[in-house]
Amino acid sequence: MVSQNQIKDFLAQQTVALVGLSRSGQAFSNRAHRELKARGYRIYPVNPNADLIEGEPCYHSVAALPEVPGSAIFFTPPVETAKAVREAAAAGVRRLWLQPGAETPEAIRAGQESGINLVAGECILMHLPPVRLPHALHRWVWGALGKLPH
């Protein structure tokens, strides 16, 4: 189970790789990108099929980034996530967040075996302060049901 301390440690990092950021501009990953940027995070888009996303240079892998980011969020197709987790860990990223829809048991195992701070089963926008609608409502419901990390 993910702890509140793991989430706080993750959110304290100011450089974030967004692995699997969509080229469409309309996907959830694009919304997360905009929300993180609005809160002052320095973002590195990572997508092997793009050179530019939302006006920013896009890197084909975490290893290609100009610096090791403090954290990485994965929006990858599930079949690609475990490989991407291993690559990020090998590149030195110590805090990984597997966004729901990207996570798989194999990817979670890969992160745990690397000994890194791994958050899985949580939505980044439910924890990124200040939490805004509709995620604030979702967070409230999870809190009422006792499903939020402690």
* CATH class annotation: Alpha Beta
**Topology pattern, helix = H, strand = E:** HEHEEEEHEHEH
Arithmetic mean of pLDDT: 96
Strand order of the largest sheet: 2-1-5-6-7
Rg is 14 Å
Please indicate the percent range of residues in DSSP E strands (runs of 2 or more): 15-25%
CATH superfamily: NAD(P)-binding Rossmann-like Domain
Largest sheet: 5 strands, parallel
Which helices and strands occur, and which strands form pairs?
Blueprint: H1 4-11, E1 15-19, H2 28-38, E2 42-46, E3 52-53, E4 56-57, E5 71-74, H3 78-90, E6 95-98, H4 105-113, E7 117-120, H5 135-144
Parallel strand pairs: 1-2, 1-5, 5-6, 6-7
Antiparallel strand pairs: 3-4
Helix pairs in contact: 3-4
Describe this structure in a few short sentences:
With 150 residues, the protein is an alpha/beta fold.
